Q: What sequence folds into this?
């Protein structure tokens, strides 16, 4: 699902409002900014018009970049650098690797 920003919601709502006023008075639009969802109640023809307009709006897709490094250290190296993982986590760290 693509998220949309407030400017896009405002533009979409304005266009819908003018289309709906011409069509009939029972049209409605609900905007949920927390999820980026727009719920529209209108005639079938107006919904089809709106479906054709939606791809014209630029959508922002939020992305997250995660960078991780996994290191395997022997007990000697940990002692050399002064890190005692047992004290940090409370979990017994094996001194030998299988």
A:
């Amino acid at each position: 699902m693509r998220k949309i920003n407030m400017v896009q919601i405002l533009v979409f709502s304005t266009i819908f409002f003018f289309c709906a006023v011409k069509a009939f008075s029972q049209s409605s639009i609900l905007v949920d900014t927390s999820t980026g969802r727009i719920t529209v109640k209108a005639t079938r023809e107006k919904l089809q018009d709106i479906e054709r307009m939606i791809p014209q709006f630029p959508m922002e897709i939020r992305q997250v970049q995660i960078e991780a490094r996994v290191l395997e250290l022997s007990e000697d190296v940990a002692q050399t650098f002064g890190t005692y993982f047992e004290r940090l986590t409370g979990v017994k760290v094996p001194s030998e690797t299988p």
Notes: The chain has a mean pLDDT of 71. Residues 80 and 96 are 16 Å apart (CA to CA). Residues 6-56 form one domain. The two ends are 45 Å apart (CA to CA).
